[in-house]
């Protein structure tokens, strides 16, 4: 055969093969099909037959999609599907919003910010408040006609007609004297105009009557109305129509097939199943390469290396892992089993699927779950989708046949508008039957970011057995959890598991692949690292994916495994029984040189692993507080609070953060005493965030600025626009004042102000008594509203108070304690908490004294 004769984009023997997508449509090499000058945009490899992987575009796929695409991008042009993330401009999403715009696709216009300072490109907030003539949280509401000036805080003159004035400078739009003069001259003209209007209206009425009669005649001749068909998206047995009525027609007409996967998703479609496309490298693996182990002590440097260039190392390594349906999953695709799957494209592999043995060999032996090997043993885990209403009996059948003692649930039942999982357990104290399995809910404990439930499970002919469910409730729908929170959750699961329990641990989220894979990798690799001193994240993900498709769905989840392992290996949570804690602290606080004490060593480790933040983590604070002292303690953007009430001349920023207690997320608001000019913002903070209790860390007679917001007993104070009334004051172990905060047009708010009677910093018995009294008072307050904790700088003694409060809650809930982990967790919200050894020692001393006092009370009451 003469290959040279090949034409019309063919090559090979008998010219039987078609050329790929060569640049400019040129003829490929007549023998091997190679493209001499490369590929046209959207294709790569030598023969230009393969489309660019998701996350790449352009000629030979050399270019990366912008990391700011809301999903991925067009393989040819790089235009982002689904638009841009907040703060970035379409179509390429590689330019920040102009100074006048913000939000998704820069589609929202900034308000009128003071001095023309650009609004925040993500939130739209004005850093310095509003310009003259505007008000509102986004400074886009013009002043009412009777007000003017910055934030509309000034009233127009009564000499103005209707008291209306220029919103910027306050000049009357028309003076009353001028208006009277014009009225006298214009009266004859007005009469003529009114007569003309009456004539025009009469003519219009006649025209309307004639038109309506004609329209009724025409309607009688029209054919019957046929409603337009709605487009539908099918998700197994779920049909939803008109899923996104607000999309513009022009936008939908130009979508590619890839984009369609991310538009009009029904609530039941899980982000974990779809978000894999966000990795800009897509699926780049060709041949699987072995990734070497690394030592657990080196994990910090490994993370630093992979984080360079905006996490480029994590993105590349994640993209190199085998992805997609790699083994047969024919059973899950059978028509009889399709309705049992929560998602259309997530099936269990046939070779590792869980078979319901009671129904083995029949169509009823199917459940969407797989066995996964751990580093300890085979089939150490079951990875499952979240149960559907139609699969509840199958789920509990699986629990019983494998004698599962622990269930790890990593999704809420509903997140936003999305149904993620059907409730498969009875409410506390109730009993339900699922198929042949009876389940009774025996216990339920709520913590800050998870819930622990205990069930008694019974199926004939087995004896009843206990199953514990650990339900992580704060995993963000479109993100990843805080690594330390995940480590603490995992540690509590591990402490509950008996060494004799060889049953598989059942782990599920919604699809059973993303969050589920993240948790299983953390658990398996942590135990492997403790045993051998080395781990291999990439190879273990390959192991998981060999038994269940696509375990770990995003590079962010992949990175979270590294970050969580780092936190776990730096210092493992170690809760101690209260009896052991008392013995340990008694020894720790003995009079030995401070530099050699156990307390000193523990404190030094705490400082060593304290999180370090960059300027980017305080971006909003630095924009809102341009004149900063070098020693100023700033709120992290991630945990900062904002003011929503509208007060003239005041912005939305305040130096305050939110922190969690042992049993409630967002339990504390932490801030500093306000100077006179910020007293109104302090009252806004309390009312906007509905705080009913304020704990002051100093006697207020030593805080001069307190007189600007706290009136004397039985008196009141105006802090415009608020009136503060001090209704009562008591002086027991803690000095308390009950104040009412009033604002015109709003319901008043009663707030309890508590202050110590003496300086709580002292470590002698009387000194800890003052701090313990403050904490005991706060513990007795209602749980519904956050507690505002205040000190001179918003950190000193605030961290001590929160740590003692959380430690006593832990003792009450679980009869154990871990001061080190409690403080460590608080420092993720504000690293300046407990920043001295004296404060750290005061926590130990106070909790120790609390335990002694409690045991003495028990003894005396016997």
TrEMBL record:
Domain Tyrosine specific protein phosphatases: 504-559
Reaction(s) catalysed (UniProt annotation): O-phospho-L-tyrosyl-[protein] + H2O = L-tyrosyl-[protein] + phosphate
Lineage top rank: taxon: Eukaryota
EC primary class: hydrolase
Family the entry assigns: Belongs to the protein-tyrosine phosphatase family.
UniProt KW keywords: Hydrolase, Membrane, Protein phosphatase, Transmembrane, Transmembrane helix
Transmembrane segments: 189-211
PANTHER family: PROTEIN-TYROSINE-PHOSPHATASE, RECEPTOR-TYPE TYROSINE-PROTEIN PHOSPHATASE
Tyrosine-protein phosphatase domain location: 314-568, 599-850
Protein name: protein-tyrosine-phosphatase
EC number(s) per entry: 3.1.3.48
Listed GO MF terms: protein tyrosine phosphatase activity
Signal peptide: none
């Amino acid at each position: 055969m003469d290959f040279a004769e090949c034409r019309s984009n063919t090559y090979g023997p008998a010219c039987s093969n078609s050329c790929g997508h060569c640049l400019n449509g040129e003829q490929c090499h007549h023998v091997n099909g190679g493209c001499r000058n490369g590929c046209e945009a959207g294709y790569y490899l030598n023969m230009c037959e393969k489309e660019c992987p998701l996350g790449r575009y352009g000629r030979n796929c050399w270019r990366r999609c912008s990391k700011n695409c809301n999903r991925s991008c067009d393989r040819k042009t790089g235009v982002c599907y689904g638009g841009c993330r907040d703060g970035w401009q379409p179509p390429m999403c590689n330019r920040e919003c102009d100074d006048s715009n913000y939000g998704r696709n820069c589609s929202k216009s900034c308000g009128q910010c003071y001095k023309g300072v650009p609004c925040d490109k993500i939130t739209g907030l004005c850093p310095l408040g509003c310009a003259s003539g505007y008000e509102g949280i986004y400074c886009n509401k013009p002043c009412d006609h009777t007000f003017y000036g910055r934030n509309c805080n000034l009233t127009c003159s009564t000499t103005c007609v209707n008291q209306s004035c220029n919103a910027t400078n306050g000049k009357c739009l028309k003076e009353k004297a001028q208006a009277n003069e014009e009225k006298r001259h214009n009266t004859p003209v007005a009469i003529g105009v009114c007569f003309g209007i009456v004539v025009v209206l009469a003519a219009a009425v006649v025209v309307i009557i004639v038109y309506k009669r004609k329209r009724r005649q025409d309607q009688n001749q029209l054919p019957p109305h046929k409603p337009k068909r709605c487009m539908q998206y099918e998700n197994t047995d779920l049909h939803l129509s008109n899923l996104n009525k607000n999309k513009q027609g022009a936008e939908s007409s130009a979508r590619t097939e890839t984009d369609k996967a991310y538009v009009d998703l029904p609530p039941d479609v899980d982000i974990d199943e779809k978000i894999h496309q966000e990795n800009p490298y897509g699926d780049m693996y060709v041949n699987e390469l072995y990734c070497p182990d690394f030592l657990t002590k080196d994990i910090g440097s490994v993370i630093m290396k992979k984080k360079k260039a905006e996490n480029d190392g994590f993105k590349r390594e994640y993209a190199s892992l085998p992805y997609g349906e790699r083994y047969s999953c024919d059973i899950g695709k059978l028509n009889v089993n399709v309705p049992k799957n929560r998602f259309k494209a997530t099936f269990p592999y046939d070779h590792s699927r869980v078979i319901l043995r009671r129904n083995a060999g029949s169509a009823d032996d199917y459940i969407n779950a797989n066995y996964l090997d751990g580093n300890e043993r085979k089939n150490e885990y079951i990875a499952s989708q979240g149960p559907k209403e139609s699969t509840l009996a199958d789920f509990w059948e699986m629990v019983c046949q494998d004698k599962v003692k622990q269930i790890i649930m990593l999704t809420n039942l509903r997140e936003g508008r999305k149904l993620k999982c059907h409730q498969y357990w009875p409410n506390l104290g109730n009993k339900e039957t699922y198929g042949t399995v009876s389940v009774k809910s025996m216990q339920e404990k709520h913590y800050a970011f998870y819930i622990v439930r205990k069930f008694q499970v019974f199926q004939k002919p087995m004896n009843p057995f206990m199953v514990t469910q650990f339900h992580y409730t704060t995993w963000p729908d479109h993100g990843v959890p805080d690594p330390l929170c995940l480590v603490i959750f995992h540690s509590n699961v591990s402490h509950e598991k008996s060494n004799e329990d060889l049953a598989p641990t059942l782990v599920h989220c919604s699809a059973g692949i993303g969050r589920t894979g993240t948790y299983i990798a953390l658990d398996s690799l942590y135990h492997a690292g403790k045993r051998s001193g080395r781990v291999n994240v990439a190879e273990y993900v390959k192991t998981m994916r060999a038994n269940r498709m696509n375990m770990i769905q995003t590079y962010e989840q992949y990175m979270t495994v590294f970050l969580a392992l780092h936190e776990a290996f730096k210092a493992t949570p170690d809760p101690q029984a209260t009896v052991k804690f008392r013995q340990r602290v008694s020894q720790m606080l003995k009079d030995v040189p401070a530099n050699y004490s156990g307390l000193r060593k523990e404190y030094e480790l705490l400082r060593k692993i304290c999180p370090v933040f960059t300027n980017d983590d305080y971006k909003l604070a630095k924009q809102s507080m341009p004149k900063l002292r070098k020693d100023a303690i700033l709120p992290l953007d991630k945990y900062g609070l904002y003011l929503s009430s509208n007060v003239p001349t005041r912005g939305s920023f305040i130096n305050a953060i939110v922190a969690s207690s042992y049993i409630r997320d967002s339990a504390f608001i932490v801030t500093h005493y306000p100077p006179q000019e910020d007293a109104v913002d302090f009252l806004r903070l309390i009312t906007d965030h509905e705080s009913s209790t304020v704990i002051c860390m100093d006697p207020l007679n030593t805080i001069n600025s307190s007189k600007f917001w706290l009136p004397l007993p039985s008196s009141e104070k105006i802090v415009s626009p608020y009136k503060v009334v001090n209704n009562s004051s008591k002086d027991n172990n803690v000095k308390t004042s009950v104040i009412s905060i009033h604002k015109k047009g709003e319901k008043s708010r009663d707030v309890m102000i508590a202050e110590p009677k003496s300086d709580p910093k002292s470590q002698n018995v009387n000194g800890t008594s003052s701090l313990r009294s403050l904490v005991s008072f706060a513990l007795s307050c209602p749980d519904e509203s956050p507690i505002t904790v205040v000190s001179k700088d918003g950190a000193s003694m605030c961290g001590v108070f929160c740590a003692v409060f959380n430690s006593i809650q832990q003792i009450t809930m679980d009869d154990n304690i871990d001061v080190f982990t409690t403080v460590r967790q608080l420092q993720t919200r504000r690293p300046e908490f407990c920043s001295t050894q004296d404060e750290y020692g005061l926590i130990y001393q106070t909790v120790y004294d609390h335990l002694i006092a409690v045991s003495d009370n028990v003894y005396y009451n016997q």
